[in-house]
Every structure is written in C-alpha cells, then in structure tokens.
Amino acid sequence: MSDAPFLPLCTSGDGGVALPLHLVKAGDEATLAHLLGEHEAFLRQQGFEGCAGQFTFLPGGSGVAGAVFCVEEGRGPMPYGALPAHLKEGYWQPQPEGQEDAAHDAMLEELVLGFCLGAYDYSLKHEGGKDQKTGPKLCIPASLGREARILARAAWLGRDLINMPANLMGPAELATAARRMLEERKVAVELVEGEALEKAYPCLAAVGAGSDRPAVVVIGRRDGRSKDAPRLSLVGKGVCFDTGGYDIKPGSSMAKMKKDMGGAALMLALACALLDAGTDIALEIRLGCVENSVSGHAMRPGDVLTTRRGLRVEVGNTDAEGRLVLADLLAEAAESQPDVLLDAATLTGAARVALGPDLPALFSNDEELADHILASGREAHDPLWQLPLWADYDGWMDSSIADCNNLSSRPMAGAITAALFLQRFVPEGQRWAHVDTYAWNDTARPGRPAGGEVLALRALFRAFSESF
C-alpha cells in the first residue's frame, strides 16, 4: 500500500497518441449521428441507441479511431466508473460534445473522479493480478480535475486500508499507516500505547485486552493557516478485526470483519483530502486502533467498565464494542471544544437493516450541522440519510448496577440507541455528528468495485472544505 497511489491519468501531451473519447448527453441525437458518421446504420443495428451508459468504439482505417460514451446529466461521477472496463489499453483524450465552457469543465471533473474510482483494483496476487499502471489512461490538462484527483487518491487510500487482510492490518499496522500519511501532510502525530493508553482510554483498553495485538490510539494535530480557522475534530473506530468477543459472531457475520476499521479509514481519508486541498482548518484526528478477540484476558458480558469521562458502563454484549472504543475518544476530543466533532464507525447492523449498504446513517445534535452535511451529500452525489437522536429511547440503555449499559434492553432501533449511547460522552453544547457506515461494496458497480469503500467521503469533504 502506497500513500501516493497511481492514478490512471496523464497530462495532455505526455501520453503519446491519444484517441478521442467523445462524451455525449444521452438523447442528443444530432450530436450522436454526427459522431457515428457513415457507421451510424451499422452501429445502430448492433444495438447502440445512445441510451445512458451505452458505449461503443468508432472504427477507423487502421482499427479503432475513437469511442463514444453516453451519459445522463445529473448523475454525478459514478457512471464514468464504467469506462475503465470499456476502454482498451492506451491513452484517451476526453471530448465533451455540445457543452459550454463551464459545463465542459464540470463534466471533466466528474469524469476524472468517476474514472479513477472505477479503475481501482485491490489484489495481493503474486502473479496475474491487475497492474494499475497499465490499462486505459485519460489525458487531462493539469489545470483541470484537481479536486477530483485529491478525492480519488483519498478514496484509494481508504479502500486499501479496509481491503487489507486483518493479519496484515492489525492495530499497530493501522496506526503506522495513519502516522505516515498524516506526518507526510505536516501533522504532528502521537501514538498512545501500553499503560498510558490504559489510563487515558480505559474503555478502549478493555476492548483490546483480549487480543495479543495491543491497542494503539493515534492522535494527530495541525493548526490552521489563519488564527480564526475553524476547528474540526475527527474520531474513527479502528477495530481491525471483530470476533464479537465472548458474544462471538457466527462465521457468516465474521467473514467481512476486517472492514470494522472502516470508520477510521474514512476519517483518515477525509483528513488527507482536506489537507491535500489546502483547506484552512485547525484539525485534530483520533483513531482507536484495536482488535476485539476472545481470550482469558477479554472483557466478559456483565463486566462494568469505567470510562474516561467517569461514567460506568455495564457490558451487556461484548459485540457492541465499537461504542466503547468511541466513548473514550469522543470524551477526549470534546475537551478541546472544537467547532465540530465528527465521528465515523461501522457501528450497527441496525443501520443497514434500515438504510441498506449504500446510505450511511447520520445522527447529529445540531440540525444546522446535519442539514449542511446532508446538502453537501446531495451536491456531491454521495448521500447520507439522517436518523433521529430520539430521546425517549435513551432509557433503553439504563443499567441497574451502572450508569448505563452498552446494549439496549429492546431489540429495536439499534442504530438510534447506539447513537444515544455515544451522545452521553459528548458535552452539552458541543456540535457533534455521527456517521454509521457499512464501508463495503458487496457487488461491483460503476465507480464502486467490490470490497472496501469510504462511503460519505465526498459528502464530508464538501461539507468541511467550506465554511462550517
């Protein structure tokens, strides 16, 4: 895994002979007929009708003379993710057809992002794996697609972290990767381990106690360029593998648990994108890198843990460990009173039952902040869906012997009760948002290869690269 992933792009003129890639709005029959030329009748007979998502090569005297891709307006970057599979190896010069200058540049921005997201491939094969330095490449002027390049690199980095098998991506490896990425961006990084971790983050330490691979907390800080730069604090759940602990998961539920650090991967990818874009923010980031295992040292159902904030939590279920990891990190992050405190986690299956795999659940104690994030998601074609912090369910987390339980007494509204648990560790008046994500693509689709995914990256980047 590299912190400078290769993107399938070249600047115009440095890739040798480039064939034209004509981008046509679906339904623009006049433009399409002109491009197809004398081959129109033949191509139409082959089933090419210019519908959204359709692709065809254009024949020439010495073979392929170009290609045509039909796009539906208003769909964002993802439809372009089909192109890496369609185009043959070589260099391609995008040519948006029938577009004014502003629309031309916007189309290229979406093309670059979608194409790069679709070209991503993860493989540890010794031989025969896909070489991402081969395949089709887009020739794009260096002056265009800057934000798309930043987001594509960040997405590739986050996907790599999630896709890495757990034996190669334990707490120490995740912390090392995060440290490298942050320090390359001039972030001051501290790794908290051992006795210092047990003292500062007792709940998190209890989660990691069952594993032979010690827990690590990554803390990164960088000041903004200006004195009044807004302060953003990021917190990510980095459970590198989750067996469920003594409340062990069945094998079918454990198969993808290397992705349980997807919240940390998302927050790290977001931090990298914001810093690479030169956003003027004062940034803090905390990642709880830990493994939830079964052993004689593991926490047990019925144990009572004391959190950093002093609240005592009864462990109703050892598989509800993510909220224990986040509790201590949120409490510490709030101590510096940031303008916004944002956390992300693969926290509950209940959020997936409610919203499916593609819609991260958003919770917030500030409606203006929630509206801003939701609007950013719509603009970036990277949606989230808000669920309520319904106070009437808060009592479901009560315990008869401790301040609260980490498990709800009712088998309903699991995403909401998990968010309500987290809210107990966020001080009154602190603007806070929580993202419950799946961090995975079960099937391959344009722009979204099967495997690890940093859902909501583009939405959150748009939300926090501007005034918040």
TrEMBL record:
Cited SUPFAM superfamilies: Zn-dependent exopeptidases
Pfam assignment, any one: Peptidase_M17
UniProt keyword annotations, A-Z: Aminopeptidase, Hydrolase, Manganese, Protease
GO molecular function: aminopeptidase activity
Domain Cytosol aminopeptidase: 317-324
Keyword field contains tRNA-binding: no
The family this protein is said to belong to: Belongs to the peptidase M17 family.
Stated name of the protein: Leucyl aminopeptidase family protein
Species, as recorded: Bombella apis
